[in-house]
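Lab notebook, bench 4. Still working through the backlog of constructs that have no structural model yet. Next entry is a single chain of 285 residues. Request: give me the structure tokens for it.
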Amino acid sequence: MNTHDLKLFEAVAQHGSFTKAAEETFTVQSNVTARIKSLEEEFGAQLFNRSSRKVDLTPEGETLMKYSRQISNLIEEAKKRIEKTDEVTGKLRIGCIETTMALKAPGIMKNFAEVHPKVQLEFTSAMRNTLIQDVLNLKLDAAFISAPIDTPDLQQHLIKEEQLVIIAGHQFKKAADILKQDLQRIIVFDQGCVFRSRLESWLLAHGTVQYQSTVLNSIEGVINFVEAGLGISILPAEVVEHFYSNRKINLFPVNKELSKLTTLLVYRKDVPPTAALKAFVQMHG
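Model written out:
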């Protein structure tokens, strides 16, 4: 075993794929497979559960990952001491929901790159539950998700609190007008989206149990459909007011229980954070 084997091991764990790990480390899949097999023989344990659809760490693999991260951190610290530099390097994979990806990720990346230009920062978007699982499975270093979360293995950092508002076409002058519609139409993201669940809860609280859903995958699409009068939606007030204040839409408040959206940055407690992750947390903690 050598440190290169551990880098291959971490790449497979992060991507959940031998093929993608090979691409990232500029080698061939057969070499990755052989080196992982060699590690498994050396430790006398299976490190990955393999199937045709995915590759996940076994409990033994998770244990090795913790130590592998510690080894990587020690080597990184040794290099910094020898080179007498505090410069942070490495790669960081951050997950977020669609609103963060589309509107806030560019600013986050720009600010971080200005301070730590040698860190390769990658963002990926997914639904909340997928993000949590990807952090737990070490496919992501950290993720921005909505609270609350009751997962003992995850460290939580409060990022910000936002207010959600109902958005509707300009023809609606008050929320009561929306609720009078014979057929309620909503413009939402796919199942698992926190905004969708809040909007459905809002409708249910006002006695609306039947509605027609149009599923989109971008905020711009949601705004366009709402502006065209094709339905209502719910989004953070700050997002709408900052990026879409010139659109022909009206905003309506939501009851306190549903309006508050708390965003957290989460990462594994039991896996030593890299210098890059520490720097990222410091900027957003």
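Notes after review: The radius of gyration is 22 Å. The longest strand covers residues 154-169. Flag for follow-up if needed.
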